């Protein structure tokens, strides 16, 4: 998986950004926007087809080849529907809420690296709209501003279900943003940079290593393997952040009709849908960039030297994004919705502590790598093992006491308690069952003793 | 944004950004004060905070700018909105003046204060050219801040974080209603209480519905014909009918 030095030149650095002529910038911006819209169009189709496949039914297959144009037809129909403005709505906020959602969702795509340096009409330019030294924070900022769209949409509708949905979603997204931000911290610590192109470059090869007692340890390039807990927590919190099943509590149909978009119709509703799918694609793209090596080819392909050069990067990038979107759909097709308190408990009491402990451990490993003397290293490892041992020993025993025998429990009841049926009660055979058996009994032709009818077993058969 | 190091001189992009966003920031600030609806006020404040975030980025502090947007605009203002929405959307200020002329006085004093601060800042730093920005951002903005925070200002930083954690824990302690585990009733205990001697475990009988009355204050009748007071809610005041009410109305014949 080592990348030859020749192709490292393909890696854009921060200095490569900001030198494009205006029309190349315009092309990149428009391309990113078109990608967002196309991803929604195809994403809805993809989701419906995949869910259909999982439920053994065809899914949309009438409009266009394989039903590809179904979303377009649905979108056109939606645009021509009546745009309802509820009487109790706050008109200005009601109008702006969906646009805030969409703008924030699309903005995050600006710092996603789609590929390496390419030649575009004779200009060497990175396949990324722009990159800044705090690019990942830009993504976080966009997602935290995107909550406003949902919350304001819910509030401005002036009705109860949307308000509840909006409040739920704000609590949910803020909680899961904490877990998400912490899992990204591990990436920052390992990569040493917050710029997305820099993080992709840092995942290029397995050159990081640690030596312990004469052994050399090589770490894999992808952070999904190197920082597996962070990747898992990032993905779980990404599902929570995008309000997708099984965490789609803000729009839980069975409880809140459609959550924050109950009152929305026509194009405004379409904008919310657009924002949701763009968000799904964005978090998939961010996961690809931060954990799956970005536009770099996966291992067996990366042996071929040309795989990471030029426009090929787009193929690997989109393949990884589609794979992650498939996982989103798969989750939706498989898991039932969580209850709200279970969901919050998962976020605050499971994901967050695991993340904190993992970051602490990672910091320890980083210190270990920098230490030169073996004695200090063994000291740190021994200390860590000691802490783990102490925690294991002090862990509270949660085994339950064996329940007392039934008769003892009955005897312990105070005088005058509610009457209980006798403990040795045997249910008498049902007269109906006996009649049924008698009707079905063959006539005793031989004149011998009739078989003893086992009423309990025939009762079971009746059932 | 890429030439952060050169930001000491005002570039065209910086000037354009400033002149677009500065009026917006002011508009947001004024709107926050003027808006009648509390949620609208919060939204105007969000606008101002967003503009401030962009200003920080333009002023070669991308990290602090982004943190401003994520923490202040994204989290803190969201909690504000959360509370305002739960309070209710019609909770606008009352327009009755309790102090006569305080509005005019407030505007005048506010303008005076703004003028004073503006003059102060302008005279203090108006002629100064900022130096040392390149040196500060030499190893990158984030790394520069981290190096300062964890070397020169590490005690101040740790003390502040301890203070914040104390405040958060204090808020939780104040809001937390402590219930020892022995007082918390589980399902088996609840059921045992329900079936304990002297407690009637079944639902209470409904109030009586008769031809003469269907009031909830009318006691229901048990199977043996006796009235049961259990069917009458305890909060209902017992009310005797006046003789005039009990007297025949003259409608029967």
UniProtKB/TrEMBL annotation, chain A:
PROSITE patterns associated with the record: COMPLEX1_ND1_1, COMPLEX1_ND1_2
Enzyme Commission number, as recorded: 7.1.1.-
Region feature Disordered, mapped onto this chain: 400-463
Signal peptide: none
Transmembrane segments: 22-46, 92-114, 134-157, 178-202, 222-240, 269-291, 311-331, 351-369, 375-395
Membrane topology, record value: Multi-pass membrane protein
UniProt catalytic activity: a quinone + NADH + 5 H(+)(in) = a quinol + NAD(+) + 4 H(+)(out)
Alphabetically ordered keywords of this record: Cell membrane, Membrane, NAD, Quinone, Translocase, Transmembrane, Transmembrane helix, Ubiquinone
Domain of life: Bacteria
Pfam families given in the database record: NADHdh (PF00146)
Protein localization: Cell membrane; Membrane
NCBIfam families: PRK06076.1-2, PRK06076.1-4
Subunit: NDH-1 is composed of 14 different subunits. Subunits NuoA, H, J, K, L, M, N constitute the membrane sector of the complex.
Its job: NDH-1 shuttles electrons from NADH, via FMN and iron-sulfur (Fe-S) centers, to quinones in the respiratory chain. The immediate electron acceptor for the enzyme in this species is believed to be ubiquinone. Couples the redox reaction to proton translocation (for every two electrons transferred, four hydrogen ions are translocated across the cytoplasmic membrane), and thus conserves the redox energy in a proton gradient. This subunit may bind ubiquinone.
Family: Belongs to the complex I subunit 1 family.
Name this polypeptide is given: NADH-quinone oxidoreductase subunit H
Gene giving rise to this polypeptide: nuoH_1
Automatic annotation (TrEMBL), chain B:
Annotated region (Disordered), positions in chain: 196-253
Keywords: Cell membrane, Membrane, NAD, Quinone, Transmembrane, Transmembrane helix
EC number: 7.1.1.-
UniProt feature, compositional bias: Basic and acidic residues: 241-253
Keyword Secreted assigned: no
UniProt superkingdom: Bacteria
Membrane topology per record: Multi-pass membrane protein
Enzymatic reactions: a quinone + NADH + 5 H(+)(in) = a quinol + NAD(+) + 4 H(+)(out)
Statement: the UniProt record of this protein carries the keyword Zinc: no
Ranges that cross the membrane: 16-35, 42-58, 64-84, 104-125, 145-175
Top-level EC class as recorded in UniProt: translocase
Database matches in Pfam families: Oxidored_q3 (PF00499)
Subcellular location: Cell membrane
Family: Belongs to the complex I subunit 6 family.
Functional note: NDH-1 shuttles electrons from NADH, via FMN and iron-sulfur (Fe-S) centers, to quinones in the respiratory chain. Couples the redox reaction to proton translocation (for every two electrons transferred, four hydrogen ions are translocated across the cytoplasmic membrane), and thus conserves the redox energy in a proton gradient.
Name of the protein described by the UniProt record: NADH-quinone oxidoreductase subunit J
Origin organism lineage: Bacteria, Bacillati, Actinomycetota, Actinomycetes, Micromonosporales
């Amino acid at each position: 998986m080592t990348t030859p030095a020749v192709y490292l030149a393909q890696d854009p650095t921060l200095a490569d950004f900001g030198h494009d002529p205006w029309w190349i910038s315009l092309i990149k911006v428009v391309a990113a926007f078109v990608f967002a819209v196309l991803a929604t169009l195809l994403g809805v189709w993809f989701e419906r087809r995949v869910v259909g496949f999982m439920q053994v039914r065809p899914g949309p297959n009438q409009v266009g080849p394989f039903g590809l144009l179904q979303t377009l037809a649905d979108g056109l129909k939606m645009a021509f529907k009546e745009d309802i403005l509820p009487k109790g709505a706050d008109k200005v906020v009601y109008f702006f809420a969906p646009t805030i959602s969409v703008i924030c969702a699309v903005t995050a795509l600006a710092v996603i690296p789609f590929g390496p340096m390419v030649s575009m009409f004779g200009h060497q330019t990175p396949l990324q709209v722009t990159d800044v030294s705090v690019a990942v924070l830009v993504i976080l900022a966009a997602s935290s501003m995107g909550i406003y769209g949902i919350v304001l949409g819910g509030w401005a509708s002036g009705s109860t279900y949307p308000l509840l949905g909006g409040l739920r979603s704000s609590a949910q997204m803020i909680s899961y943003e904490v877990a998400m931000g912490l899992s990204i911290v591990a990436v920052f610590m390992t990569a040493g940079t917050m710029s997305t192109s820099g993080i992709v470059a840092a995942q290029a090869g397995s050159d990081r290593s640690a030596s312990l007692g004469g052994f050399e340890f090589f770490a894999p390039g992808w952070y999904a393997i190197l920082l597996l807990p962070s990747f898992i927590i990032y993905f779980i919190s990404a599902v929570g952040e995008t309000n997708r099943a099984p965490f789609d509590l803000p729009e839980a149909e069975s409880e809140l009709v459609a959550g924050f978009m109950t009152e929305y119709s026509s194009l405004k509703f379409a904008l919310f849908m657009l924002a949701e799918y763009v968000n799904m694609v964005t978090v998939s793209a961010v996961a690809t960039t931060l954990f799956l090596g970005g536009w770099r080819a996966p291992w067996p392909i990366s042996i071929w030297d040309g795989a990471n050069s030029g426009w090929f990067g787009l193929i690997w990038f989109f393949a990884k994004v589609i794979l992650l979107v498939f996982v989103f759909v798969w989750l939706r097709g498989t898991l039932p919705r969580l209850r709200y308190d279970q969901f919050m408990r998962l976020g605050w009491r499971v994901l967050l502590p695991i993340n904190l402990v993992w970051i602490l451990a990672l910091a320890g490993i980083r210190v270990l790598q920098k230490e030169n003397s073996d004695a200090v290293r063994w000291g740190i490892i021994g200390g860590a093992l000691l802490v783990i041992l102490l925690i294991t020993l002090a862990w509270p025993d949660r085994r339950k006491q064996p329940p007392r025998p039934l008769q003892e429990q009955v005897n312990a009841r105070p005088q005058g308690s509610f009457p209980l049926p006798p403990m040795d009660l045997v249910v008498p055979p049902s007269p109906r069952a006996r009649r049924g058996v008698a009707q079905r009994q063959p006539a005793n032709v031989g004149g011998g003793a009739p078989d003893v009818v086992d009423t309990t077993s025939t009762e079971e058969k009746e059932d | 944004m890429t030439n952060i190091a050169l930001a000491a001189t005002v570039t065209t992009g910086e000037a354009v950004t400033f002149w677009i966003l500065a009026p917006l920031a002011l508009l947001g600030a004024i709107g926050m004060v003027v808006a009648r609806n509390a949620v609208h006020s919060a939204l105007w404040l969000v606008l101002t905070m967003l503009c401030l975030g962009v200003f920080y980025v333009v002023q070669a502090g991308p990290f602090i700018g982004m943190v401003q947007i994520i923490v202040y605009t994204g989290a803190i203002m969201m909690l504000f909105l959360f509370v305002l929405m739960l309070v209710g959307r019609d909770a606008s200020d009352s327009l009755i003046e309790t102090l006569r002329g305080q509005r005019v006085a407030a505007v005048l004093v506010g303008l005076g204060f703004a003028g004073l601060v503006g003059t102060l800042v302008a005279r203090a730093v108006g002629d100064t050219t900022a130096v040392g920005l390149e040196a500060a951002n030499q190893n990158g903005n984030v790394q520069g801040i981290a190096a300062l925070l964890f070397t020169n200002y590490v005690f101040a930083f740790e003390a502040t974080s301890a203070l914040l954690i104390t405040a958060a824990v204090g808020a939780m302690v104040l809001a937390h209603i402590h219930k020892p585990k022995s007082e918390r009733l589980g399902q088996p205990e609840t059921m045992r209480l329900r079936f304990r001697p002297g407690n009637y475990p079944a639902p209470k009988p409904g109030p009586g519905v008769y031809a003469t009355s269907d009031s909830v204050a009318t006691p229901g009748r048990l199977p043996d014909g006796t009235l049961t007071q259990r069917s009458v809610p305890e909060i209902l005041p017992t009310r005797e009918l006046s003789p005039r009410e009990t007297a025949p109305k003259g409608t029967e014949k």
